[in-house]
Amino acid sequence: MIDPSAQVSFLLDDEGKVTGWNPAASSMFGWTIDSAPGRFLTDLLASSARWDSLASSGGGRMHMRFAGGSEGNATLTLTRQYDGRGEPLGWSASVIVAAGDSACESERVGHTPLSEVVDLLPGTFYAINRAGRFVLWNHNLERLTELTPDELGAAQVMDMFEPHERAGALENIRRVFEEGAEVSMEMNYVSRSGRETPMLVGGARVACQCGDYLFGMGIDISKRRNKERQLMLSERALHAASNGVVITRCVGRDNLIEYVNPAFERIAGYPAAEALGRDPRFMAAHDFDVHERSQVRQAIIERRAVNVVFRNQRKNGELFWNDLRITPVRDEHGEVTHFIGILQDVTAIKERTAHLEHEVNHDPLTGLANRTLLWDRLDHAVHLAHRHGSMVATVLIDLDNFKAINDTFGHEAGDEVLKVVARRLQSAVRESDTVARMSGDEFVLVLVDQPSVRFTLRMVERLRSSMTMPVAFGGNEIPVGASLGVALYPHDGLGPAELVRGADMAMYHAKSNGGGVHFFSPEMRSADERRAALASSIRGALDHDELFLLFQPRMDARSGRVAGFEALLRWRHPEHGVMLPASFLAEAEETGQMVEIGNWVLDQACAFLQQLRELGYTGLPVSVNVSHREYSQFGFIAGLAARVQRHGLPPGALEIEIPEADLIRNPGLGRDLSAQLREVGVALSLDEFGKGISDLSFLQQLSVRQVKLSKAAVRDIARDGGSQLAKTLIDIGHNLELAVVGEAVENEAQATFLTSHGCDQLQGQWFSAPLPADEVRRMLDQRYHA
Length: 786
Hints:
- InterPro entries: Biofilm_reg_signaling, EAL_dom, EAL_sf, GGDEF_dom, Nucleotide_cyclase, PAC, PAS, PAS-assoc_C.
- It holds the Pfam family EAL.
- This is EAL domain-containing protein.
- The protein is about 40% helix and about 30% strand.
- By secondary structure, the protein is of the alpha+beta class.
- It folds into 4 domains: about 5-220, PAS domain (Beta-Lactamase), CATH 3.30.450; about 240-350, 2-Layer Sandwich (Beta-Lactamase), CATH 3.30.450.20; about 360-520, Alpha-Beta Plaits (2-Layer Sandwich); about 540-785, EAL domain (TIM Barrel).
- The strands form 6 sheets. Strands 23-24-26-27-28-29-30-31 form an 8-stranded mixed beta barrel, surrounded by 5 helices. Strands 2-1-5-4-3 form a 5-stranded antiparallel sheet. Strands 7-6-10-9-8 form a 5-stranded antiparallel sheet, sandwiched between helices.
- The termini are far apart.
């Protein structure tokens, strides 16, 4: 049973939840001191009532639930509490149990001594006179201050405050006594033992028979202070965070922004004032990342966490990549009320990654797809073509005479040609097609969705035409041409490697036949297999001692004596017999074996010269033909010098024979090579003189021993009017003060004409076929002994 005289007091926050509870309240309502905080006042009512209505009315007579399940009427009184700044801070509640409507019961309760009530109150209770001394207090005040009753009775209330708090406390006490104000303030009380306790103290004026007093209470706010410090720390952390933080509140299908930190403002460009109260979707870049946005929507609906990366839009309209992690926040009932979004601007990372991926997959010079990306694109194209039953064309393009462009105009010009060709190719195909730079001057195109071979042929012809215009560079117009090979899926191959190999064979066939466009055919595969077999055989030719030299004499036109020799290479093939250089040197150039073969030829020629000198034939030089790949390599001159020294050869004994057109094509290299050969004691002989356009001023700058007439000029001597070219070339050579050699002399008419017009030396089958070294020695012995 509830004692009709019972009266309790407790404290509430602004939402009507219990913050302070004492044993008397536990006895009346059954809630323990530990379980009461956080529970709602309305839970004590037997009838329905809203907290806001109770707060506005200040309470009243209520039907309430008591300990043990009983119910009854009681009077609830709610009194507003204030902090030290005069701001509202919760409520104090008192409950008086009513025994029917008996006025005598009220009188009995009203006459209950205050000293019997104060120790039941939570926190400290005190009564202070105008002199600032305590006249009444409860045990909680004694425990807080660690003072005895006598010490409290003699204490001055202002001594309880820190020096910086006293002015505010004195003003509040004055207002209570002089204005009748209800006041409250926060203070830090330091007890005798040094324990510091933050308190919320307050009071109001109460008139008693003997005068006015300040009646007040103090509440320990340590827990609240700790929470405030934690909140302040959290807020500072949020402000200092480099990632954006957004807190939204769930309102139906929307999530309205309640908080954004400075990093969000910096990243999104929206001030907090423009973002608060809006759904974060206002930043969406609607035409991008549809799948990722649907993931976010679904996670919000299902009230679960999600992490996505997508693009949002800043206030200035700029797109940025946003790594967004969303986490739901649940209330005490487990319901999701808020979401916290952590967003990181990863635009720079995305751009850097895209740049690295581009560098990995694209050619740095032209910006085209490189070999890695080509294989990926071609594999994908073949996969789709197989699924859809369509055709894919693989086109391999090789520029004509690109090495000559580098040699003549320089590597910068070569690079410019490659870049211009790349742009032309890209502009000639569709966006769905791929243009790649395979290596050097080789390009590969992947043309998808080819409806017919005729359609492919038109596309390829358009490609070839787009490259025929010269490229302007450094005041020169550089001619550009190309050979194109085409292979089609599925006719010519079912996989990327097979298609590229087929296009390469077709291109090789085009190049061998003067350029243009060639489509792959099965016959090409047989020719390619023969070339591959030849290349494989060349690799073993040196190891198996299958290469050998023949030496063709050069005759002095006046005396008929031997004036020198030209070293000629032959290959004794185990299956095809003796092969001339024309049938295998081109393949040696393609496979990169020309340098090794050329070094062997030079070694053999120098050894032959040494043997001649040991036999007493000291005035017979030997000439060796060298290719551009050989003499342009690093260390070529040094290698010649070492050979000359190793074999004890005098200056001029070894001649290097180079076609005139090769030197004119790259004048700088020609001048350097000529000077370096002279320094190491090796003579320079120009082959095929007059085959093309001769630059006489350039030839005068070179240190040249002799010129060899072009074979065409010698061959045309017997034809009507054909002898004029040979005569003119002989005159030019002599005007340049150079010896003139007529080679490929096949008959008496040619020999007679060249001799009669002053040609210095003659060489050809009319005088002698190329001879092995042993026969050369016998021939010399017979001639000189005779």
